[in-house]
Amino acid sequence: MQKRVLSGIQPSGELTLGNYLGALRRWVSMQDKNESYFCIVDLHAITEPQDPQDLRRRTRDIAALYLAAGLDSAKSIIFVQSHVRAHSELGWILNCMTPMGWLERMTQFKDKVAKGSAERVSVGLFDYPVLMAADILLYQAHLVPVGDDQRQHVEFTRDVALRFNHRFGDTFTIPEPLIGDTGARIMSLSDPTKKMSKSDEDPSGTIALLDPPELVRRKIMRAKTDSGTEPRFDDERPGITNLLEIFSALTGKSRAETEAHFAGRGYGDVKRELADATITALEPLQREHQRYTDDPAELDRELRKGCERASVVAEQTLRDVQEKVGLR
After folding, report:
1. Is 87 helix (H, G, I), strand (E, B) or coil?
2. For residues 170 and 58, what is the distance between their CA atoms, to the nearest angstrom?
3. Which of 2, 9, 59, 249 sees the fewest Cβ atoms within 10 Å?
4. Whether 73 contacts 305, CB under 8 Å
5. pLDDT tens sequence across 62-106
6. Which residues in the chain come in under a pLDDT of 70?
7. Where in the chain are the domains?
8. CATH classification of 203-290 is 3.40.190.10, yes or no?
9. What gap in Å lies between CA 253 and CA 247, rounded to an integer?
10. Is residue 38 helix, strand or coil?
11. Alpha helices in 139-254 (DSSP H)
12. Would you name the residues annotated as active-site residues?
């Protein structure tokens, strides 16, 4: 029996090469073996201030990039989170079953509070893990492909599901996090000690999936490296290690093959070949994205179809939950 997979990305910035290698490309390879649900989690995006027009544009851009990257609506259900009302409804019910102490221990929330004032942090940001739990549990997902930084959220979801099942009987599938290996954690080009992020305030550290070729090349050629001249993987040299990691992920070469490929050569050779490989990988994706941009009606049809298919499964779970807690 196929396992059910669910994952999503926030439309809170431009998708990066890290998102492609760590998430989108993995999802494409998974959709032939699993029953797959991939959403754009726009309700999570508004836990922090967003410009409404930008949010709408980014939501559509990400949907187009999902399809351009190879997600196939004949194999996967692709939808926008807010289009399926059951996410919000189940989120509220789970709120009423979740102890505040569990939320107060969430690392990402504590990190964000530490960077600013608790007075400016929204209740939605505090409550983010409960909505994420609703996203996963609505579809009875067995597997949740996430980065290592999201592992705690899936563990939280498991705790919520177990608590609900213990109180009301077998209701939710208990999900497992699916953490990637190669390419799962692509680091910033300007600061290779931190993850490449679509929310990075330094644009030179990220390669956006829609960056034009000349900008991709410029960013890579200016990427931070380390002392030394031999291109090899070394935890003490995060700059060159990150460039080699990206090259390995893009070309499918192992670490050993990558080191052998660049043996006796310099950092400049690594950057030039990495720029070529990145531009080559992004060209078909950008071309397909443009096709959906030129035909917005087709993108609307895809999202409407995904919403309808997702809603059938989500509403079934929601009705079961409502009956068990006494709301039906």
Report:
1. helix
2. 38
3. 2
4. yes
5. 999 999 999 999 999 999 999 999 999 999 999 999 999 999 888
6. 116-119, 180-184
7. 4-179+296-325, 203-290
8. no
9. 8
10. strand
11. 151-168, 213-221, 238-251
12. 112, 195, 198
Q: Which two tokens stand for residue 256?
A: 């050993």
What topology does CATH give the domain 4-179+296-325? Rossmann fold (3.40.50)
**Reduced to 3 DSSP states, what percent helix, strand and coil does the chain have, rounded to the nearest 5?**
60, 10, 30
Exposed (0-12), middle (13-18) or buried (19+): which is 150, by Cβ within 10 Å?
A: middle
Query: What is the rounded distance in angstroms from the CA atom of residue 142 to the CA atom of residue 136?
Result: 9
Structure tokens given for 46: 């508004």
Structure tokens at 314: 């989500």
3-state secondary structure of 36: strand
Report the distance separating Cα 194 and Cα 185, nearest Å: 9
Calpha distance 154→284 (Å, rounded): 33
Radius of gyration of the chain, Cα coordinates, nearest whole angstrom:
21
Q: Which structure tokens are listed for 187?
A: 């680091």
**Other C-beta atoms lying within 10 Å of the C-beta of residue 6:** 24
- Sorted by sequence, the CB contacts under 8 Å of residue 281 that are 6+ apart come out as 20, 250
